[in-house]
Inverse folding.
């Protein structure tokens, strides 16, 4: 499996991330629009990704208020269980490396994850971005140390990548 990871193309993920789903649900439950200025940082990151996919957009309300709105395609995405034929995210090597690093082999409920202190420096920014997407979560330990672990959605991404690698590796050996 290591051979499949070296110099690979980013893995095309075609399902909305948990952060994108949460924001789209929030938009749709608020009659399709939220005040843009009241979105927090993680919602702004998800909004920009949804905007690129044309599932959300921005409009002016009144004279100067910006609103984040769900588009008709965003409504259709909810009806399709948030799966799309378009590539939502390209999962890169560092992101795959982080998901594998956090995978401790336990069930989600039993998983502890890894401490931020143990995490190599190059993975910290990747972990922050994966947290914004909803594929990694942080929790406090009994001694005050913060731990990172994969969410069920992050495990789903890793399982799809591993299945892809398992299918492709035998084909690469034939070359």
């Amino acid at each position: 499996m290591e051979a499949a990871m070296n110099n690979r193309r980013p893995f095309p993920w075609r399902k909305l991330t948990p952060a994108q789903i949460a924001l789209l649900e929030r938009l749709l439950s608020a009659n399709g629009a939220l005040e843009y200025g009241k979105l927090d940082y993680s919602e702004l990151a998800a909004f920009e990704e949804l905007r690129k996919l044309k599932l959300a957009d921005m409009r002016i309300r009144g004279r100067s208020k910006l609103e984040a709105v769900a588009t008709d395609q965003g409504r259709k995405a909810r009806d399709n269980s948030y799966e799309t034929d378009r590539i939502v995210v390209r999962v890169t090597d560092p992101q795959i490396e982080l998901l594998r690093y956090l995978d401790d082999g336990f069930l989600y409920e039993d998983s502890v994850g890894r401490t931020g202190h143990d995490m190599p420096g190059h993975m910290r920014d990747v972990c922050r971005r994966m947290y914004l997407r909803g594929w990694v979560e942080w929790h406090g330990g009994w001694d005050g140390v913060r731990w990172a672990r994969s969410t069920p959605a992050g495990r789903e991404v890793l399982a799809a990548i591993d299945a892809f690698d398992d299918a492709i590796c035998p084909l690469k050996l034939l070359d």
Remarks:
- The chain is about 45% helix and 20% strand.
- The helical segments are 2-5, 18-29, 41-52, 72-79, 93-102, 121-133, 152-174.
